[in-house]
Design goal:
Elements lengths: L1 E3 L10 E7 L2 E8 L3 E3 L9 E9 L2 E4 L4 E3 L18 H7 L20 H7 L13 E7 L3 E2 L6 E8 L3 E6 L2 E7 L6 E7 L5 E8 L4 E10 L18 E8 L5 E5 L4 E7 L2 E8 L10 E3 L2 E5 L8 E6 L5 E7 L8 E2 L5 E5 L4 E6 L5 E6 L12 E3 L14 E5 L4 E6 L7 E6 L1
Parallel strand pairs: 9-15
Antiparallel strand pairs: 1-4, 2-3, 2-5, 5-6, 5-7, 8-10, 10-13, 11-12, 11-14, 14-15, 16-17, 17-18, 18-19, 20-21, 21-22, 22-23, 24-25, 25-26, 26-27, 28-29, 29-30, 30-31
Length: 419
């Protein structure tokens, strides 16, 4: 067990360090060094560290007691300026233990701040020792666009990468390489035609890291001003109407068909239709270049989740054991879809293939769900989602609300409430 403290108090006086093991005094002496290491013997239940500061001719207690459980190592160094770097380390590096601002400086000029390197355990003053392969930032100048093919700039800041790859959905659209492993700032202008996910992948000779972000296509339209009515030869389900930026739209009808109408100049023409799909009672989820919908059948006994290409061909479909009246919800990475069945079955699907990742049946009698769930995501390390702290909020027609865990746990209900 090692305990680090400065050997001087704030007034420049030496300190006396006294140590007890399991209540027995083992050491008491004037301490002038920067560190003092003692190893507790096997069977020690706790260690107490007590410091006194000398003032004038005597010693006084400066209330700096600390207890350390020998069964779980604890290290509590003094950090006077609260910048995250202990005083003893700042003195060793020539930093000021009373100035928190020096934590964000870069002592060795390797592209990482002093606090980043101290936290990562790399050399704060060694230019050749720096944190591992890292995506410091991946962001976009705008996360929503109002029309297809509108220019969007992707920006990144990475470290330790030999190659950089940018994907639109699962398609590689850009790659770069360099021999210098120092910091790497770059950008790329893209022109998404639909809501899509961009993924940045960086690699060195041994590892890779990735991060993703979603750019959504949201039409800048004043809906009452659109003069063209829907065709009158179908009994449409207007809850399913999904407008694109150019005025084209997806819509379902009560005869179980799904249509795409394309706008050309001042007219709309039917581009394609899919028959016997089932009724769609919600707007399509537009992600990864696909329109994804859930369907319902007569009697609510069966349903499907269907992913449709822009040309009307089906990319994949998932057969559900009940109707799907709620809109599928995609995570911010565009990788996972969350769907809730009519009778409260929560399903997680791979957004690219439709493969079932997991499902969970909410354990409640007479449960019916017709409203789309809400997704609450928490950020994790390396730009990934922390599933252990993320949740899907589901509301039933009886106004019962459930928070469903997204990680792999046996009982996924985090909390529930009746309104």
């Amino acid at each position: 067990m090692a305990v680090e403290y400065l050997g001087l108090d704030e007034s420049g006086n030496h300190k006396r360090l006294t140590i007890w093991w399991s209540g027995r005094l083992t050491s008491s002496k004037v301490w002038r060094g920067k560190s003092h290491t003692r190893v507790a013997p096997v069977g020690t239940r706790f260690v107490k560290i007590h410091l006194f500061a000398r003032h004038g001719g005597g010693w006084f207690n400066n209330n700096n007691d600390a207890y350390f459980d020998a069964l779980s190592f604890v290290h509590l160094p003094i950090d006077r300026d609260g910048d995250g770097i202990p005083n003893v380390k700042e003195v060793e590096l020539g930093l000021n233990p009373d100035d928190a601002a020096d934590a964000v400086l870069d002592l060795d000029g390797d592209g990482f701040s002093n606090i980043q390197e101290y936290t990562a355990g790399t050399g704060v003053n060694n230019v050749d020792d720096f944190p591992d392969l890292n995506i410091k930032a991946f962001y976009v100048d705008k996360t929503q666009i109002g029309e297809a093919n509108e220019a969007v700039t992707l920006n990144w800041q990475t470290f330790g990468a030999e190659t950089i790859e940018v994907f639109e959905g699962e398609t590689l659209i850009h790659t770069e390489s360099q021999a210098n492993l120092a910091g790497w700032d770059g950008q790329l202008v893209v022109n998404p035609s639909v809501s899509t996910t961009y993924k940045l992948v960086i690699k060195d000779s041994e590892k890779s890291r990735e991060n993703s972000l979603l750019v959504e296509l949201k039409p800048r339209v004043n809906l009452p001003e659109w003069p063209e009515p829907l065709p009158e030869d179908h009994d449409f389900i207007l809850d399913s109407l999904t407008l694109l930026a150019d005025g084209s739209h997806y819509v379902s009808s009560k005869n179980d068909s799904y249509y795409f109408y394309q706008k050309a100049d001042t007219t709309k023409t039917q581009k394609w239709q899919i028959d016997d799909l089932g009724q769609v009672h919600h707007k399509a989820t537009l992600v990864n270049g696909l329109a994804i919908v859930g369907t319902t059948s007569t009697g609510q006994s069966k349903g499907k989740v269907v992913a449709i290409h822009p040309d009307g061909t089906i990319a994949w479909q998932y057969e559900a054991d009940s109707s799907i009246k709620t809109k599928p919800i995609a995570d911010t990475k565009g990788k996972t879809l969350y769907v809730v069945g009519y009778y409260g079955k929560v399903i997680a699907l791979d957004a690219f293939s439709g493969t079932e990742l997991w499902f969970y049946q909410i354990p409640e009698d007479n449960l019916i769900v017709v409203n789309a769930p809400a997704l609450k995501e928490e950020a994790g390390v390396d730009g990934l989602v922390d599933l252990s702290n993320s949740q899907l909020i589901v509301r039933t027609t009886a106004n019962n609300v459930f928070a469903i865990a997204l990680d792999d746990r046996q009982d996924r209900i985090i909390w529930s409430k009746a309104f």
